[in-house]
Amino acid sequence: MKLLSAFITILFTLLLMGCDKKSDQITNADEYDSFLVSNDNKKTDFALKEIEFWQNKFDKAPNQTSYLNKIAANYSVLFEQTGDIQALYKAEQLLIKSNLQLNYTDASSLRTLAKNYITQHRFKEALDLANKAFKTGDKINETHKLLFDVQMELGNYELAKKSLVAISDSNDFDYLIRLAKWNDHKGDLEAAIAMMEKASAIVEKFDNKYLLSWTHSNLGDMYGHAGNIEESYKHYIKTLKIDPNNSFALKGLAWIAFSHEKNTSEAKRIIDVVSKKHNSPDFYLLKAEIAEYEKDFASQEIYLKKYFNTLKSKNYGVMYNKYNGFLYADDNNTLNKTLVIAKEEIANRPTPQSYDLLAWYYYKKGDVKQALKIANEHIVNKSFEPEVLYHLACIYKANNEINQIKSIKKELQASVYELGPNMVTKIDRL
Question: What are the start and end residues of each TPR repeat (predicted)?
Answer without folding.
Answer: 213-246
